[in-house]
Structure formats: structure tokens, C-alpha cells
Amino acid sequence: MENMPLDYKKELEKAAKQMILIHRVDTLVKIILRTIVRMLKIEHASLILYDKIQDAYVANASRGKSGLKIPKGFSKISKDNPIIRYFTDRRPQGPGLDYLLFDQIECSTGPLYEEIKNQFLLYNAKACIPGFFRNKLIFALFLGEKLNREDFTPEELGFMSVLSSDTVMAVQNAWLFQDLNEQLQKNTRLFLQTALALSSAIEAKDPYTQGHTERVANYSLVVANELKVIGRIPKNEKNLLENLRISSLLHDIGKIGIPERILNKNGLLNQEELKEMKKHPLIGANILSMIDEFHVPILGIKYHHEHHDGSGYPEGLKGEKIPLIAQIIAVADTFDAMTTSRPYRHASLSKEEAARLIESEKNKQFNPIIADAFLNAYKKGKIQG
Amino acid sequence: MENMPLDYKKELEKAAKQMILIHRVDTLVKIILRTIVRMLKIEHASLILYDKIQDAYVANASRGKSGLKIPKGFSKISKDNPIIRYFTDRRPQGPGLDYLLFDQIECSTGPLYEEIKNQFLLYNAKACIPGFFRNKLIFALFLGEKLNREDFTPEELGFMSVLSSDTVMAVQNAWLFQDLNEQLQKNTRLFLQTALALSSAIEAKDPYTQGHTERVANYSLVVANELKVIGRIPKNEKNLLENLRISSLLHDIGKIGIPERILNKNGLLNQEELKEMKKHPLIGANILSMIDEFHVPILGIKYHHEHHDGSGYPEGLKGEKIPLIAQIIAVADTFDAMTTSRPYRHASLSKEEAARLIESEKNKQFNPIIADAFLNAYKKGKIQG
After folding, report:
1. SS3 assignment, position A378
2. What is the pLDDT of residue A92?
3. In terms of pTM, does the model score above 0.80?
4. How confident is the model at residue A2, as a pLDDT?
5. Right CATH number for A204-379 from 3.30.360.10, 3.30.70.420, 1.10.3210.10, 3.90.190.20?
6. Residue numbers in B near A204 (CB within 8 A)
7. Which residue of B has its CA nearest to A295?
8. From the list A165, A180, A197, which residue is nearest B184 (CB)?
């Protein structure tokens, strides 16, 4: 490779190396094409990539001044495409199929070569380099003409083959990452859906609270985002949104331990019943207490009935002693309770009236910062049940 | 690089490339060391690798005929180690620190060089090659003497530097994979723990069923493993264990919808109460019905009271019409119900008596294959509450 300028080779090697840590296939392809176009000084480059879901090849990206600008994912290419077929059919005979040149094709005869020639013309390509993983064709890379109109040197083509196999490994790696990430997201979604389903099942015992859990979760997240925007989330509150999502979905889970005669009572609760009802935050915290990682969500469940002025329950915590997550759920929970009617409460209020009550409870029931965040979100129309 | 034998260079390039898809750091290090020893024809090679948790370096592996055989994870090396310090301190001045040779060190004077020399002697090394990610030293690779006693050529050292930076990227990539995988495992664990906590909370309403959910889950998994061993799990049953784990933990979740006066009744249930109680499989299936991915676990919840001969509920399904997952939970559930006393049942049986009843219910209540799998596991002492 002594004929090649060193910086060009170094640059491409560096690009190949950095690809490994890019775990989005589309970004990966864009970067590699851009680097090839710049360093090889060619008019353009494009790539067709295997797509698992479609079990076909997709024209994935095109970079450079000229050449086909294919809208992403636009062009689905079947496995019957002559170029795909050419590489796929010949691969089992052993490696050595490092590239295909337009000049070679022009000199060959036969119907397959005619078709391949048409493909080269379509992609406006002078060379095509396959990318194999074992015997599977992962992609075909099309190189446009060099700006100086010269032919590709054997060294350049050899180096492109090496780069191509590096790209194959990077693509495989990115696919594995994407799979793992999708599974992670799926698991998280399943978890939250299950928590919601179970909370709803508990709500089903209390006909007055239909949809309460879901609304409280939504309101809580809106308030947290509002706090984030104005920079009022302390730095030591890691994963607040994630914890809040879990905590708000499970905040009333302790009602599972409240006798039905109290949950379903048609009318105001008496002193003794109220005392029983007020156990639900502790029961809920208790249910999940074995799960170490739920340390923070449990705080939201345990303390969402504490008041800023210390008049709440179960512990009568005051001000900043109340965990942030519980302060947020408290406002969201109260607003929803006020705007839906319950047997042991007054009739439901309009949203406007409830907002005014939240305002008037600043420094009493609620931390003023949290109440303001809620009210700001309300004014922006973000508090929607 | 024209002085190097081509196959040696190719081999190392291939090794570097394949590293990307190895997502266990320890395996990665072993493979790369083995390849280096074989291809460079050196006595041995070893590597000290940064460890995030300890925030220190750990002598990770040693390969080759001679040289230190360091037990894995044995030797923790502080950041104050002279070699670490040498590379770390000089790095911000720019790259170019591609290697350090014992011969250079011997000619240098000063206390740091004395210390470095001692390290080289300790690792019985002739060369040390650092691996940086940005300005962070990820590892130091120690190369033993060449078998032919010659010095390393500049080409060999240059190539080792390239290989080293490939290894850095592969290690980074593997670390990211490990993190993602740990998160996935953590999420799954949290989900299952939460499901168990909530099921236990429902059990808490029914004092006779303490620990029932956990035992049924355990028994079910034992039966599934037994079926797996004897090859009786159909090929189309994907993720049976995973689905069974979720389904068994939630199989009685529908009891959330059964009135307390029935759940808590001290004595046998009357006809009307029994009818109500028998709704719990459908209620449970209903609660989770919105979650598409729970299609299979829901079948276990819905049909775990069906009988092989069609005499069960809710649908009176017969034989193979009963989903496998439900057949398994049915045996596990019945065995646990028989061996713990319940108000609406006879007094509890001994495990031996219960096993005999399972045997006698083959082809009646139970699919004989599932019952046999359970009884085999029981005989092996695997059915432990």
C-alpha cells in the first residue's frame, strides 16, 4: 500500500475504528459514506443494506455531490436484484469476491452482466464492493467516479475491501445493540403497563377512582418536566422521571390492604374508618419494601399525603423533609381527587376552582415551588386528564 | 510494513476484527493475548486492565509458556503504579506514546525509571504497549521476549500499537454491552419482584395462602425444566420459561376482584360464593388483557383451572386444547393447594399423599405427561416449598 498517501489511509482506518462505538446503523452508514467520498475523492457513494424485518435490501443512504439521492428507506431491493444475486451465488465458492468494476462488466457478455450493468448505471457507480458476514451478504457499497476521472488503483480497491469488512462487523455490532436496546425498552414498557393494569384493578374496587392512577402519573410527569425546564430539580435527584413514573403508577397500591367496606362506603368515612384509610401509604410502601432498587419510588408512595406545613400523614413531615417525588405526587393526586367526586369528600370541583385551591394551599398543603410548577403547566394547558 | 510476513499481519487483523463481536471483556482479553503470543512468537503476554468498579487496574490474564501466571482478578494495581503513572502523566502532551521498551528503560536514569524497570522485571516483559481511549489509559499490554531472542522490529511495534487501539475500542464496546445487559437483567428482576410483591399483597387478604404464589412459581419452573430435559416442550413454545415465570407469579391476580367476604370466609363456600370465586381466572386475564406481549402468560392465568378431561373452568377445555403453560400451573397450583390448608377445602395433606393424588388424577384432572414430569421432579426432591 506504499502508493497511497498515508493520511488518507490513516483517516479511513480511524473512521473504521470509531464505527465500533456507533450503535445506530443509519448513523454508521452515513459516516462511513461521507468519509469514503471525502478521502477517496469520488463524486458520490451509496449503499444498499440488508434489512432483517423486510428480509430484503434497502437503499440506505447516498452521499456526495452527484449520484442518486435516495430518500431513506425508499427503495426496497429484492434478493433477486442482479448484483445481490451475483455476490450471493458466487460467495460459497470461496472468498476473493472483493469488488466488481464497471469496466469489467462492460467487457463481459451474457444477460446477467447486462442486468448488472444497468444497476451500475442506476447507481451511477464505477465500482461495487460487497460486505459479507460469513456467507451472508450484508451490504453492497457503490462508489462513484473519482473526481480526477482516473481508475481506482488495486491498492485503493484492496483497502476498500478491508474497510468493507470492518463496516460489516460494525453493522453486526450495531444490530446486536439495537436488539438489546429494543428488548430493554420493551421490558420497561411491559413493567409500566403491568403496574398500571394492577393499579387499575385496585381502582376497580373503588368506583369513584376510575382512571385516577393514570391521570396522577400524567400530571406528575408534566410537573417534573416543568421543574426541569426552570432548573429546579436538584442535581442529586437522579432518574427523577423514571422513579416518578413508577411511583405515581403505584402510589395507591396500598389500597389493596384497605377493607372493602371502607373503600366502597357510600358516604363520608367516620373517624375510625378514616384512620384505617390513612394506612394505605404505609401499606403500599411495605408491599414494595423488599425491592431495594425501588428505594426512591417507595418514598413517593409512603409520603404522598404529607403536607408542606407538617399537617399531613403518616409522619407529619415538614417542608424539605418531604421527598421531592412525594411533593410532586401530592399536588397531582390532590388536583385529581378534587376534580373527580369521591364518597368521602365534597362533590367534584371544576378544574379552574381546583387550580385556585392549589394556589391557596401554597405554603400550607403544598411546597410553593411545586404548586407553581403545577399551576404554570395548568395555564399552558398541559394538565389534561 | 513490507518486512512482515503477510499471514501474520492478516491473522492479527482478523483477530482484531472479530473482537468486536465478543462482548465479554475477559474472553476478549484472553483471545487477543493468545493470538499475540502465537503470532509474534513471544514467550508470553499479559495485560493489566482498568476496572470501573474498583477505579484501579487489575492484572487480567497472562498467556504463554513462561511469565507470571496471575490468578484472574488477583492482583489489583493502583493508579500510582509507575507504569500507569508514566503513561497517564505523559498522555496529555499528545500522542506518540505507542510503546515502552525494556532496553530504553535500562538506559534511562532517575527514580521513576528504576521503578518502571522493576515492573518490567515483575511482568518479565521486554515491551509495554498502552491502550488509550481518549486520554484515559484503558490497559497496558506486556510482551515477553521473542522466542528467537531478537528485538522487536519497529514494524512489529507499530503494528502492535494499531492492534492495541483496536482492542481499546473492542473493550469499550464490550463494556457498553455489559452495562446494557446488566440493565436488562435488573429490569427483568425488578419486574418479577414487583409482580411477586403485588401477588403477595393479594395473598395477604387471604391468610390461608401465604407464600402460595412463590411456591407455585417455583414448582412450575421445576416442571418446565423437567419437560425440557425429556424433550417434551414443543418447538413452537418459545420463551416458555420466561412466560411461565410471569404467568405463575400472576396466576391468582384476579382474586383482586373477588369480594373479601368470599376470600376471607371461614368455612366452605356455598354454591353462589363458589361461582363468584371461580371468576378469578377470567378477572386476572382481563386485568392484563391490554398488554399484547402477555398473550401467552395470560393463557396461563385464564386456564389454570381447566381439567384434562374437560371438567374444569372457565371454558371446560379438554386435553391439548388447554395451553401447555396452564397445564403446568394447574399441577403446581393443585399440589400447593392440597399441601396447605384452606377454609373452602379439606385439611391439608402430606406431600406424599398429595403426590399420590396427582398420580391418581392423571388423564382426569391432569395431562399425564405434565403430571409425570411433576412426579419425577418430586421423586428427585426438587419440589420444595
Report:
1. helix
2. 66
3. no
4. 42
5. 1.10.3210.10
6. 256-257
7. B190
8. A180
